[in-house]
Amino acid sequence: MSSGNRKVVITGIAGRLGRVVARHLHHDARFTIEGLDRRPFPDKPKDIVHHQVDLRSKKARDIFRAGDVDALVHMGVMHDPRRTPAELYSWNVGGTAKLFEYVQAYGVPKVVVLSSANVYGPRPENPQFLTEDAPLLAAQRFPQMRDLVEIDHIASTFFWKARDVDTCILRPVHILGRVHNAPSNYLRLDPTPTLLGFDPMVQVLHERDVAEAVACALAPGARGIYNVTGPGEVPLSVILRELGRRTMPIPHPLARPLYSLAFRMGLSSYPVPELDFIRYVCMVDGSRAERELGFRPRATLRETIRAVDDPQ
Amino acid sequence: MSDWLRRRLDRAVEHRLGEDVSSRTRALVLRGNEYGYDSYGLGRDHLKMAALLAGWVYRHYFRAESFGIEHIPTSGRVLFISNHSGQLPFDGLVISAACFLEPPQPRLVRSMIEHFVPTVPFASYLLARWGQIIGTPENCRRLLEDDEAILVFPEGARGISKPFSRRYQLEQFGAGFMRLALATNTPIVPVAVIGAEEQAPAINLKPLARLFGSPSFPVVPYPPFVPLVPLPVKYRLYFGEAMTFTGDPDDDEDVLEDMVKSVKHRIESMIHLGLRERKHVFW
């Protein structure tokens, strides 16, 4: 290991967000990047080493065995709503548990886990801004979110248990950009379905600001659980107007049956329980990340919203 | 289609608003982002509609009169504590309208709405656009720390749903508002509302309330027999001098009880004064 050059292993590097984060950290001379993903990483920069292996495999353990890994960024969470719950659970929860096992066994001093502000869950009785101490109630209404909540719980348990490892859990709000996550995909629909009579306030974050937040969390000594917020909050309708989308308001009692039908017929890939995200408020207070990590979003609100239409 | 409707509505509102109300809307101190919304979902453009409705209800429907306007602070955090009555929450609307229309510098007062409101179509976002917030202590604390004005009815549902026979008798006050005031060092302005009790003289049918699982089932002696539209009573509002308290917000209920009682007594005496001065319920 060359001095001053920290070796960072990134899981899920081949995903779109993974590539954004990898490029951002790659520009920073302090880091040497290694990728860990089951998928290939075709257009990777030359000096990034990519291990195309399964998180749960023996080969993944070998990456850590040498003991020269300085940090792990875990963002290899699979969201594909078409996979079976058992497969998702084994990959997401099983894989995360394995990773923490390697971290502890081979003395990795720093772990950054990319969770999500969605783990709090959209609920009508939510306060306007949830702090990091709020309970993670998303799984109460969506069994599909159980994996995400469980990963967050595994990470926070590890944070309390392994005091010698600097664990950072980041819970970013809706990430917008070229990424293919649920909020960006949703905003790319035209006409965009909305729920008649509902227009919740939402928080958005530019994909490049996520990478910046990860970089902030990699700073030596940073540890804790942090909500990561973007440049502000706006009603959903304002975002859709800014993007010039036509809207298709659907009465909410009809939306559920219609969408589950469309989902089963393969016409829509919008997971039905996530309709609550366009109905209720799920916003977080990001002041702790600003105070302790020194994170500040660079993109303006308008840039962040428009990022979903950036050329692919 | 919806854009066309929205534009028509905007023009109509602008036309009816009148110079006084529209300059007051502009004079309101709001913290909005580049799209004109604050972080609680309040929008300056939507506020015009609310100002128009509230102004009409305040001036023409209830012909409200306010006393003690000088006690409404022009800036800084403040908690308005009031009696709650009349089956329908028009007392909140009238107090907010008074703080917007009467003082030299208009003040935006936010009141706390029930937790079920976000599940109701349209109400879910319209109330937020007009500055109302979900009634959680976290929201309240955050807004007070940002030097905003908040209206709290410590009697809650007990107050608003009490039957006509117990009019102008205050129910038990919760201590939550006092904890908030102590924690955030906020002055309390007591408010007495006279008139709301008579807007829907109701009796409470307890068996039906139990049947529907609602806190009360009020019945009024005129069609449609449930309180939907209030009678055009005359409202009188009394704003009292600001009260400040010091103490530990996490103290026992019985320690806070004395401070809560002093606010309650102040409101009671303003109610008695208002009832003595009133000549008639409707004018």
Explain the overall architecture.
The complex is a heterodimer of chains A (312) and B (283). Chain A is an alpha/beta fold. Chain A has helices at 16-26, 58-65, 85-105, 138-141, 146-161, 182-188, 207-217, 236-242, 252-264, 287-293, 301-306, and strands at residues 6-11, 31-36, 49-51, 71-74, 110-114, 166-172, 174-176, 192-195, 201-206, 224-228, 233-235, 247-250. Helix content of chain A is 36%, strand content 18%. In chain A, helix 1 (16-26) crosses helix 7 and helix 3 (85-105) packs parallel to helix 5 (146-161). The longest helix of chain A has 21 residues, at 85-105. In chain B, helix 1 (2-27) crosses helix 2 (44-61), helix 2 crosses helix 3 (90-101) and helix 5 packs parallel to helix 7 (176-184). In chain B, the strands form two sheets. Chain B has a seven-stranded mixed beta sheet, sandwiched between helices. Chain B has a two-stranded antiparallel sheet with strand order 7-8. Chain B is built from nine helices and nine strands. With 283 residues, chain B is an alpha/beta fold. In chain B, helix 4 links the parallel strand 3 (109-113) and strand 4 (133-134). Chain B has helices at 2-27, 44-61, 90-101, 123-129, 137-145, 156-160, 176-184, 206-212, 253-277; strands spanning 65-67, 78-82, 109-113, 133-134, 149-152, 188-194, 203-204, 218-219, 236-239. Chain B has one domain (63-277): Glycerol-3-phosphate (1)-acyltransferase. Chain A binds chain B through residues 124-129, 131, 195-201, 232-235, 238, 242, 247, 251-252, 279-281, 283, 300-302, and chain B through 2, 33-35, 37, 39-41, 43, 115-125, 128-129, 133-134, 136, 138-139, 142.
